[in-house]
Amino acid sequence: MNTKHLLTIVLTIILSFVGYSQTATIKGVILDEQNKAVVGVSVKAGLDGTETNENGFYIIKVPANQDIEIEFSHISYKKIVSVFNLKNGEEYEFNPVMNTSIEQIAPVVITSNRQKEVEGITTLKPETIRKIPGANAGVENLLLTLPGVSNNNELSTQYSVRGGNYDENLVYVNGIEVYRPFLIRSGQQEGLSFVNTNLVQNVDFSSGGFQAKYGDKLSSVLDITYKTPYQFEVNADLSLLGGSLSVENISKDSKLSSIVGVRYRDNGLLVNAKETETNYDAAFADAQAFFTYKFTDKFHLSFLGNASLNKYGYEPQTRQTNFGTLSDPIALLVFYEGQEKDQYQTLFGAFKGTYFVNDNLNLKLIASTYHTTEEEYFDILAQYRLGEVNSNIGDENLGEVEFSEGIGSQLNHGRNDLDALITNIEHKGDFKIDDNRIEWSVKYTNENIRDRLIEWEVIDSAGFSIRPPRTTPINEQPYEPFSGPIEPFQNVRSTNNVKIDRLQAYAQWSKRSTLGISDVWYNAGVRVHNWSVSGDGVSSSNQTVFSPRAQFAIKPYWQKDMLFRLAAGLYYQPPFYRELRDSFGMVQPNVKAQKSIHLVLGNDYSFKMWDRPFKLTTEAYYKNLSDVNPYTLENVRIRYRAKNNAKAYTYGLDMRLNGEFVPGTESWFSFGYLKTEENIDNRGYIARPTDQRLKFAALFQDYVPNIPSMKMYLNLVYNTGLPGGSPSYADPYVYQTRLPDYKRADVGFQFVLVDENKQFNSGWKKPFKELSFGVEIFNMFDVQNSITNTWVRDVYSKRQYAIPNYLTPRVFNVRTTMKF
User: Fold this and answer.
1) Cα gap 609→21, rounded to integer Å
2) Of 7 and 527, which is predicted with more confidence?
3) pLDDT tens, 666-710?
């Protein structure tokens, strides 16, 4: 990034309310009657024009907020004339079919579709998702650059939104809800996200106040749409962390389209760079497929399938962590024995039938099954030595522990198994009449979960077993004799066989209208959710909740392009299996749905700067939560109390400025303020585990002016520290210490050899549609971030030390991407 571009950023932020010229973008693919790409179609908009390429693709800039006539003409086909009226910065996809025998009588008028902005939805470009560097690159990596979205662990694909936890986020792929593994406890175990970025066509994200058509969660919605191919194409992505390959195709009669992707990932590059020396052997792989068959113009049938196998082998050897102060340096030396062996295998399949009754009525039937079998086995003995560090500069023993203040050992044992089968069947409908739209759904879900949890921990300090906290009698050896039984410091044992049946339904109404000289949008809907819990040794329970939600948006006809929106609703989160299981592993069937009243007020301001589009998005929000199910958070593992014995609140402000800070590229800067507190058993309000007060993030794309093929991508995140790092058994009212701030910058440099603007008709580059090579630097400033602490004690002073478990340091990666 050069000085000129940095100055551009600063001036843009200061002068963000300036600008008058506004444009939109229209793009698409033009096909003939046989669904074949039409090459050389002339596309004219006023004095501007372009032509379709060999794939029938075109893209053109048009003035915004006014009627603009576009003419599509070809010597062999009848001319098409369409009139568009689009908002500033909007990208509209228009795919006309050119006919050789029927003359178009009148122009087609297409007005601006601001529906996603009206709903408070952020749309992310798949191209950006695939290019931005990150230790766990993908959709979730890009979400972390948005305001209100946080994650303090770069190895994890999970995220927290506006004070919620990882279990409060909905994820859909092609309208089908997808799930994540149950037993994951650390980021380095996770492997691959369900979403395969090579298959993605559209990404929509809502961080609160979403409509009734989305499910019963408290925080956010991630709505993914996979591609519908129109030609044969192969995409490949290779790096030191693994690779991916996808193939898409369409049949000659255009009835069958298919896209298949396979991925492989190995976190060894990142895990081996951490301070603990290990023998690390892990492999994460999956295969996904999306097929669509058009039986007729009115009936389409699609299938989405996924199979993944994650194997995780971890054998720690040694570790040394230096902490303390310059005047009193302390070190922890750990020698390990044992290993951890985990395996997660998931299978997912979904059929969706769509019947287009007419232009105004669509009916869908969706059936899906998700099956996961998970094993988590570990026996790890850690023998530690805690002592003073030699800090004499020039001494040959500099940095070594010379005097031990405490010695001890810790044995962790686990034999955890889980088998879950989740089956869904759902009917959806969508009916349009004039400016009104009515949507509805009825869904039945059966969750059958078999779970065995066996975990215990024994702590020994200077030859004496440490008893569990808050137990009697207290062990005062060696000063007093102790005759009580020897118990593990922590011990969790349970076996559960649980069945959960759910019946869900929603109905919602939407309308676009005018109010005076302003455009307005209305949305109102309600969800109902009934669930019953039963199982071996579990008393049956049945509960029902109703969730009304509404949205209102208005766009005044001002000189400045402004959109205001208001969303409110009563949101419930009926408990999933993990929320029914308490901290001892026992299922509590009477756990209530957590309840939250949402209020969101937002504004979008679109403007022009340096003849380029920008947009400033601002949202203020408030949540009042009751029947809260408190939990502890350790790394990425959540354990609930299953008591509904708390209430909470959340409020904050999110801001994002995005636009072309550098011509031809999109970048943005995000800022978020958040405060969330909970009151457990009426003991007073304290910070929740996700109380991340400040967040700043930036995604910046740049290129070398004299070498435009050399591109740079910067992903920057700063989060203030979370409450945490305490032992899992600690009383949160006693321990409110915060972890250090999370600071991370990932940068990628990419040299583009072939792209849509640089094609070759001969030589070794001819087969490629795209080809690039690059280098990525993760954690480029080598910041020591930590998300948990290891707790050790000095038996003589009985003092406990919190030793931070650091995340990944600076790591280099090489990467190549290609398209055929």
Assistant:
1) 8
2) 527
3) 889 999 999 999 999 999 999 998 998 999 999 998 887 777 788
User: What value does the mean pLDDT of the chain take?
Assistant: 84
Quickly state the pLDDT bin for 1 (edges 50, 70, 90).
very low
Tokens matching residue 547: 């969730």
Q: Which residue has the tokens 């990467």?
A: 815
**Beta bridge partner(s), residue 507:** 440, 526
Query: Which of 102, 94, 59 minimizes the C-alpha distance to 77?
Result: 102
* Cβ proximity of 619 and 571 under 8 Å: no
Tens of pLDDT along 711-737?
A: 889 999 999 988 876 766 678 888 778
Whether 674 contacts 695, CB under 8 Å: yes
CA distances to 223, 228, 259, 299, 502 from 353, rounded to whole Å, are 19, 15, 18, 7, 22
Q: And the tokens for 226?
A: 């996979």
How far is the C-alpha of 447 from the C-alpha of 452, rounded, in Å?
A: 16
**755 contact partners, CB below 8 Å, separation of at least 6:** 769, 770, 772
Distance CA 530, CA 502 (A): 6
Shortest CA distance to 325 belongs to which of 274, 275, 389, 385?
Answer: 389
- Report pLDDT for 738: 84
Amino acid at 190: E
Quick one: pLDDT at residue 457?
Answer: 85
- For every residue of 497-539, DSSP letters joined together read EEEEEEEEEEEEEEEEEEETTEEEEEEEEEEEEEEEEEETTEE
Q: What was the pLDDT predicted at 398? A: 63
pLDDT band for position 351 (50/70/90)? very high
Alpha carbon 311 to its chain's center: 22
Q: What pLDDT does 135 receive? A: 84
Angle CA 748–749–750, to nearest 5: 115
Question: How far is Cα 179 from Cα 374, in angstroms, rounded to an integer?
Answer: 14
User: Sorting pLDDT into bands at 50, 70 and 90, what band is 112?
Assistant: very low
Cβ–Cβ under 8 Å, residues 129 and 200: yes
pTM for this predicted structure: 0.82
Which H or E run includes 140? helix 139-143
- For 95-117, b/e burial (b = at least 16 CB within 10 A) is ebebeeeeeeeeeeebebebeeb
What CA–CA distance (Å, rounded) separates 309 from 329? 44
pLDDT attached to residue 735: 78
Range with top average pLDDT, 77-81, 403-407, 754-758: 77-81
Chain Cα centroid distance, residue 334: 35
Contact of 76 with 10, CB cutoff 8 Å:
no
Q: Which residue type, as a one-letter code, is found at position 764?
A: W
CA distances from 239 to 125, 132, 813 (A): 22, 14, 7
Structure-block tokens of residue 262: 């396979």
What distance in Å separates the CA atoms of residue 319 and residue 385, rounded to the nearest whole number?
A: 11
Token pair listed for 142? 């890009």
Buried b (16+ CB within 10 A) or exposed e, 387-424: bebbeeeeeeeeeebeeebbbbbbbbbbebbbbbebeb
Cβ–Cβ under 8 Å, residues 380 and 411: yes
Beta bridge partners, 79, equal none
Using DSSP, state whether 13 is helix, strand or coil: helix
Amino acid at the residue 684? G
Q: Which residues of 748-758 are buried (b: 16+ CB within 10 A; e: fewer)?
A: bbbebebeeee
- Omega within 30 of 0 (cis) for the link into 133: no
Token code pair at residue 91: 């990208």
- Note whether 547 and 527 are within 8 A (CB): yes
Closest CA to 385 of 471, 451, 461: 461
149-150 and 160-161 strand pairing: antiparallel
- Can you give the pLDDT at residue 65? 67
pLDDT at 287: 94
